[in-house]
Amino acid sequence: MAATSLSRRTTKLFLPNGGCHFWSRPAYGLGYACQREDRFGRLQRRAAMLNRQLGGEGWSSWDTPPTKPKWMRWRTYEEKYEIWERAVDEANTESTVRAMRILRRPMR
Question: What is the per-residue pLDDT for 67?
Fold first, then answer.
């Protein structure tokens, strides 16, 4: 382990599988789940987050537009809806690009 990782203060300690000491995330070399996602996963996560902000259910309906919540102003809803719509379009485009790459691969 690097000496700088062990001498820094941290607010959260981890004990991963097979570990015998409680150390910080950098000391163990751990990353976040979102750092291992590909482009489509990041776009899908963003669309789900925006869907939840609009009053939707999130992951289960990340590509289905939610109806406007009663407490939200129309202007706010329309602005967030446009951002959500762009995120879904980008995710769908990335999905299509990925499918085209798979279809172009030669059969083995």
Answer: 84
Question: What whole-number distance in Å separates Cα of residue 74 and Cα of residue 84?
Answer: 15
Query: How far is 18 from 54, CA to CA, in rounded Å?
Result: 41
pLDDT at 108: 65
| Phi, psi torsion values for 69, nearest 5 degrees | -70, 150
Structure tokens that stand for 43 in this block:
């776009």
Considering only CA atoms, which of 36, 76, 41, 73 is closest in space to residue 59? Answer: 41
The domain ranges of the chain are: 37-104
Low-confidence ranges of the chain (pLDDT < 50): 1-4
Q: What is the pTM of this model?
A: 0.62
